Amino acid sequence: MDNTPTALFTSHELDLTQLLQGVHQTLDAVQDQEAEARKKALRRVEVELDGADDVISQLELEIQGIPRSMVASHSTRLTRAKAELARAKKRAREVHTAGARRELVGAGVTRGQNAFSSDDPYTSEDTRTRLLTGTAILEDGSRRLTDTQRIALEAEDVGAGILRSLRGQREVIEGARGELQNADINIDRASGTIKKMIHQMYKQRFILSAIGVFLVLLVITILYFKMVR
Fold first, then answer.
1. pLDDT per residue over 38-68, tens digit each?
2. Which CATH architecture has domain 5-171?
3. Full-model pTM
4. What are the residue ranges spanned by the domains of the chain?
5. Residues contacting 128, CB < 8 A, separation 6+
6. What is the DSSP code string of 128-153?
């Protein structure tokens, strides 16, 4: 079995895809179910979404061990997986809200029918007002959740961009550090070469001086013997 970070990442990604497919299938089927069955199905969806959150956490852990050259592509896949999970959660909330509204409307209709059979002419209007108020509150809550989710996704994209920028800057710094190390090595080599050249120059100067002294002594010796004779 391949236990490399990229293989584990792909495996967890496949698990998440299967979980989300199951969630969407359940949400497709829940539309035509009775209230009790729908509640059970939605509770099962909540459990599966919690499992999907755990898989996302595993993906975030695995991406830390992926080679640097492959991090960018896998970060994109992680962002896409988070977006898919966010869409599934949004749809689950919408189905849950629609179910709650349907139950509320159904209960209101039942109460309204009972009200029509009573002698109070204001009961039906009060029930309708309460239903409209409850529907408005549910729609406002759903809109706020959607706005919060959008802001969270935008913040996540900004954070991912900052991380990519920091990663690029780190690579530039590491490259500059490598160039400085190479420059230090070249400077040390050049310094050693110059020292050798200076040593060689002094050596040649000493040899030339010795040859000059020897020639002077030789000329003096020759002149001396000629003058003596």
1. 888 888 888 898 998 999 998 888 888 888 8
2. Up-down Bundle (1.20)
3. 0.45
4. 5-171
5. 108, 112
6. HHHHHHHHHHHHHHHHHHHHHHHHHH
